Amino acid sequence: MAAVHIARAGYSAAGVQRRRALALSTSGTLGFVIMTVAVLGALLAPWVSPHNPLVQDINQRLQPPLWVNAQGERYLLGTDQLGRDVLSRLIYGSRVSLLVAFTSVPLSALLGVLLGLISGYHLGFADEFLMRLVDIQLAIPFILLALAVMAVLGPSLPNLIIVLTVTTWVHYAKLVRGEVLSVRERDFVTAAFALGATHSRIILRHILPNILSTVIVLTTLNLPRMIIAEAGVSFLGLGIQPPTPSWGGMLSEGQEYVWTAWWLSTLAGLTISLTVLGANLLGDWLRDALDPRLRSPARSRW
Q: Long-range contacts made by residues 141-147, C-beta under 8 angstroms, separation at least 24?
């Protein structure tokens, strides 16, 4: 008994140390700070933007960063080809990218988890049909499928969210199916079925909670993918249409002025890269925090 208590104490101490290490993680903190700034900037855009992002003034077009006009107005990141403030457009552009990401990711997760649960639990015809559908969709390049659907539906924010949702649910379905196939064979699921539990109760009370951490991690890691996807579609002209600012649209507009106004495309690209980096760092931290294998006694020295 003494040995058991010592082992438990050691495991508890190891768990406390691990939680402290996660809380003090430099990369996780950096990712959290970047995403917090991006989200707050999107929410508070009307109050933190120094200028109206839609107001044009040809007389002050293509001015470099840190430029001050005759009225004393500062343009920290310069102006674009139509005289609009680049900083304000970047701030307002975050609203589009984050709205698309934070809307399409939960919707695709909900659809993919639902179909993955059905496929992995019931098997049979439903499993064969859904998995063949997943294989077909995975065989088609994402950007090609997205562009084809956007060309048919037309460029708009709701259509873009729909396209990203229906083209990314397959990743959740594939992952959830594999997790369900593993969990459904465990003893506690067999015991619940033997005690007369219904299929819906087994799925909701016994299977879903055991795969939820994996789904949460995948959802977090899909956020940067959606940001890049939105920027890519907008860059190609089938996303959010002007004059609404978007990071992909700003990147596309700035490519014509790379040699004369480098800040247009460079700053838009850096903003996308920094936000994606923050989302990836936050996703990696969340994966470390939720991975049950890192919490098992076998991983400790006891």
A: 142/167, 142/168, 142/229, 143/229, 143/232, 143/233, 146/229, 146/233, 147/233, 147/236, 147/238
21: pLDDT strictly greater than 60: no
C-alpha 3/C-alpha 121 separation (Å) is 41
Q: What does the alpha-carbon distance between residue 142 and residue 168 come to, in Å, rounded to a whole number?
A: 8
- Provide the number of structural domains found in the chain: 1
Contact predicate 69/31, CB 8 Å:
no
Range 188-195 contact pairs with CB under 8 angstroms and sequence separation of 24 or more = none
Q: What one-character-per-residue DSSP string does 107-121 give?
A: HHHHHHHHHHHHHHH
- pLDDT one-digit tens code per residue, 56-97: 888 888 888 888 887 888 888 888 888 899 999 999 999 988
Residues 6 or more apart in contact with residue 191 via CB below 8 angstroms:
none
Residue 20 has a pLDDT of 56
CA angle 13, 18, 19 (to 5 degrees): 100
Domain residues for the domain of 174 are 2-299
Query: For position 46, which CATH number holds?
Result: 1.10.3720.10
In tens, the pLDDT along 119-174 reads 888 777 878 888 888 888 888 877 787 778 777 877 788 888 888 888 888 888 88
The SS3 assignment for 216 reads: helix
Please enumerate in sequence order all residues whose Cβ is within 8 A of that of 106, keeping only pairs 6 or more positions apart, or say none: 219
Q: What angle do CA 45, 227, 82 make, to 5 degrees?
A: 55
| Secondary structure (DSSP) of 81-132 | TTS-BHHHHHHHHHHHHHHHHHHHHHHHHHHHHHHHHHHHHH-HHHHHHHHH
Looking at the DSSP bridge assignments, the partners of residue 68 are: 74
